[in-house]
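WARN retry 2 of 3 for item q-0093 after timeout on previous attempt; input resubmitted unchanged.
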Amino acid sequence: MPPFDPIRLAQGGSLTLIRPSLGHFIADRSELLRRAADVLELVRTKALETTVTARYPLAEVAQAHRDLEARRTTGKLLVIP
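OK item q-0093 returned
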């Protein structure tokens, strides 16, 4: 999203702008590791499905970024070293 003046939000009513980050939801490293293990266990048992729709060799990582930016992708993209 290109930069914009946040004052424009006030002109539209009760609009807000937020940019959450992981640090706001994870108290410490042990909690991060526990939550990551929980998610990976769900993936392992197939209780949480992931869809990999494209694989890019590392040499084509710039194309992967262009595809993401142009919204030409869905699901997960993998960059293969």
